[in-house]
Amino acid sequence: xxxxxxxPELAREHGLSAEEFERIRSxxxxxxxxxxxxxxxxxxxxxxxxxSSRVHLRKFPTKGPRVLQGPGENAGIVDIGDxxxxxxKMESHNHPSYIEPYQGAATGVGGILRxxxxxxARPIALLDSLRFGRTDHPRSRYxxxxxxxxIAGYGNCxxxxxxxxxxxxxECYDGNILVNVFTLGVVRHDxxxxxxxxxxxxxxxxxxxxxxxxxxxxATMASEEFDEKSEEKRPTxxxxxxxxxxxxxxxxxxxxxTDAIVGIQDMGAAGLTSSSFEMASRAGTGFRIDLDRVPQRxxxxxxxxxxxxESQERMLIVAKKxxxxxxxxxxxxxxxxVSVIGYVTGDGVGRIRMGGGNVAEIPIAAVTDEAPVYNRPxxxxxxxxxxxxxDFSALPFPSDLSETWKRLMGCAEMADKRWIYRQYDxxxxxxxxxxxxxDAAVLRVKGxxxxxxxxxxxxxxxxxxxxxxxxxxxxxxxxRNVACSGAEPIGLSDCLNFGNPEKPEIMWxxxxxxxxxxxxxxxxxxPVVSGNVSFYNETKGKGIHPTPTVAMVGLLEDASVRLVxxxxxxxxxxxxxxxxxxxxxxxxxxxxxxxxxxxxxxPPESDPAHEARLCRFLREAAQRKLLSSAHDLAExxxxxxxxxxxxxxxxxxxxxxxxxxxxxxxxxxxxxFSENQGRALLSCPPEKKAALLAAAGEFRIKMEExxxxxxxxxxxEGIARLDAQETESSWRGGLAGALGFEG
Amino acid sequence: xxxQAMKIAVLVFxxxxxxxxxxxxxxxxxxxxxxxxxxxxxxxxxxxxxxIPGGFTYGDYLRTGAMAKLSPVMGAVRGFAxxxxxxxxxxxxxQILLEAGLLPGAMIANESxxxxxxxxxxxxxxxxxxxxxxxxxxxxxxxxxxxxxxxYYADRETLAGLEENGQVVFRYCDAAGNVTPDANPNGSVGxxxxxxxASRNVLGMMPHPERCSEAEMGSxxxxxxxxxxxxxxxxxxx
Lengths: 743, 238
Prior knowledge:
The complex is a heterodimer. Chain A is α+β, with helices and mostly antiparallel strands. Chain A is built from 25 helices and 28 strands. In chain B, 22% of the residues lie in helices and 24% in strands. Classes of the chains: A alpha+beta, B alpha/beta. The A-B interface holds A 152, 156-159, 241-244, 246-247, 334-335, 421-430, 432-433, 435, 444, 446, 560, 742 and B 14-15, 17-18, 20-21, 24-25, 28, 55-56, 58-61, 112, 114-118, 144, 146, 148, 208, 210-211, 213-214, 216-218.
């Protein structure tokens, strides 16, 4: 094998700036060789180092009495009492999913599952937040079908239910779809495992699939620079094997019941490199590994390829010296490769050998702690001003409000998502108490009375118009969703999807969104325990709307008090829980976008303190069993929330008649579809009214009695009404219809 | 009624993923003595009944159930069934029983070419099996399905035999019990959701009774199959 000369040009092709390359030379005191260059380039990449985001991510509250593990590990862990905890994380797989939707989405699921079970947790739920381009964009149908099939293919096979999620369609995602996948697992406190390579002399063990040339970062390099016999470049998108991951999952959990290991980490992005260096970094140790011992799928792989391969379904384990046999027995039982590839050293250096010689020698801290950190310039673009100047009074009044209402209920954003979630096994493991279709999914925790409520949310129109407020609303809405199921928000993970951070306006969006999210987190006292940043979501210079997706985890101490969003029965009273106000909020609304074709205005005002009180009230009302249903008001405002409570019930649609809570001076279309934040639509039996109002008073929540459930019409008195059955049909067929799929 | 002392094997193949659910329903809901049995085991002699749970054995990579039928435990299942022991194969377990030849016919992809997870209704066609003896004929059960290959197929002769001998145990139907094309989720011939062998002690079904064994999960109808089987075992004596 010919040694490739490392030049500044080659460094640049690896995504390293001239300054970064100089920094590497000064750290090493020499030029790096090609393998070392590869290692630095992936470890200092935006994806692994968070170099552009780190200074802002510090603004998130990450601590709290329940936090057992905050950011910095493979997943965050939050205590749920009784010696149990939940481990969870959300991650993006945007770029691969656009190139190859099935495998891109599938390996996204595989990766996030490994992040959770590497902590010792048994994954019990998946959720996904998906963003595609316009439904009539020529590529959308292919991408939707591929991504949904990919998530289904992986999740169904490995046997983890996909219990919820969200999907949006917008022009800004035409060239950059978003595939954000969330996993939650349950773990006993005493079985929590972390990515630590501690104990000098302990064996470093490779388990799982063999390593191949898939997903190598340096695939941008021209092939002639390699040995002339080297095979042609492989596609950069990895291929998932959920069957192998199922074996890996079971083997790892079986191993973690023993105390034979000291640390374990998934080989995800940057594969063997990131797992080995990060584990040594956390433990303050070093390692020596021999690449000849790595199980390989192909012949003639170079050290560069072996260190950078992103082959799926692999883990790195540091076991206790002398306990290797136990590890081997378990992995051999599950027909998986297992090999001792090296051992932990105490000198803080990563030494990588192959063919009897050193192929890389790098101080651990150099690639981890000393990674560059950038406080990139940020500036609010002037173009932002024009967005807020919309004259709402000039918007044409719809000729038929009922028809407009019905059209919104059937648009892709509002429509039934059954076409998607029916393809996901959402019941396996028999924990799903609230199936997809309500504000939040609720899962039981077997062996306890507890329930876990989960919701993923982000309204990127709001974030586009005002990233600070949009970020705040993303947190508040996800909290409201879990509170509407009766749960207390206890922790969140996020997936921050943005454009190119080297542009000041993108950095402004990023910084502002984080500050808004952090403000809301503080109001709820909810910590951010894990997450992921995805930059460079741009095509031909056009970025996506800033999309900081939030995955909220809620806890019900007693799952039997859980609530759903749909009305239960005739005669129940309908209430609006709200703050005290009478303005309307149309900026960035679904109505403005879908009916008037505009994403403009100022997004709704958000008051996290009110939101936190509302959530406490909802939880209290659930615990006191005062409510028949609770539904968050979001896109489409009161009218759409009312219709949803009527038509989403599994028993079939039911009507309801309510009055308009807004003053008559406000345009009827605005009143119906106004997206004021911090509201929930509640129903209760008449005999519980007094107790419900009393509870609302305790939390200073304004309650307006709007009407009652019953009949076959969904009606806002004097304004508009819909036939419940007809509305249900157009809602049910809306998504498949818009994409041209068979329902 | 509980299943105390009834020893029930829940087979575990590489890729089984409803094994924990079957175990939970049998052990924690019905108080049976459920045990996991690894696919390399060669005997089921100590057991009263066997469940082949759902999943994606060997990833479904060759053909559903095609690899699992070669596992040593399947020899034991055959012997166990020949001796009259009750065996229930659910979803992928049904597919394995078909591949192993313990039940006739084959499974092809759903007509929609999509995986389908949903609650469906099935009609009980016969009470004459250990699994349905406590369920009246024509009783409608609400049960979940979750499969990509649940489109049951058998040639005309085999089908006529199944019908004639009353081996069709469950058919997809609507809420009122009408067996209609609209109620058929996957294109299965004759709306077939489950069949038994000629001796009636081996049942294969695509719907998941283990998923609907507790009211809080949305339906407890599936529990009736397990209760029937345990009652049958008790009456038979061990």
